[in-house]
Amino acid sequence: MTSVKEQETTGKLRFFLQKWDNAHKAARSHILDNFIESNDGKTEQELELEFSHGASLFLARLTAWLRVTYMYSTCLNKLLKSISVFLSAASGQRYVIEFLETGGVLILLEILGLNHLKEEDKRESVKLLQLVADTGRECKEIICESYGVQSLTEFLATSNSAEAQGDVQVLLDSLGHNNPKHQNQVYKGLVAVLPRDSRRAQRLALQMLGAMQ
């Protein structure tokens, strides 16, 4: 039989998810603020305890809302940071896999190509892609096979933010190492940056090309 405590924790999770499902934009924004403040830096085990072993249910809701709202910048930065809580959780590789299975990488790459979105939102997308890449070679391959190199090098060449370009450099450098299937693709993508107008992008591309020799 289910214990009283288990019933209480399950009920708490159900109430939280219903609150999210029924909330409008402003209320969801407030929920995200509280979630980030309360859970940033937690491990997978801690998140599962917090969500009565149903944390994946909330991650799925975050990813679903991202899919339908990212073009309109609806709480986008908070939404990306909330997803980062899951993807950065120690021992939380399962969350990365779940995010991949719902098409999360494609959404992050599309965000980079939308001119009307803020640079800080695009930078947050790059950070999430880095968390995916850090999970292992197979995840690097998924990024590359989703036209990630093209999206990242284009963002590198067009971004006006030195910080964002630095984040892209770290990610492209990661994709170019321990990823033999797509190393040549990364190399060619960096070469294509050299004729572009951004001097900073040219310099970063040259640095990465030198490291790949």
Automatic annotation (TrEMBL):
Signal peptide region: none
Pfam family, one: DUF5578
UniProt xrefs under InterPro entries: ARM-like, ARM-type_fold, DUF5578
Protein name per its UniProtKB record: Uncharacterized protein C1orf228
The species this protein was found in: Cuculus canorus (Common cuckoo)
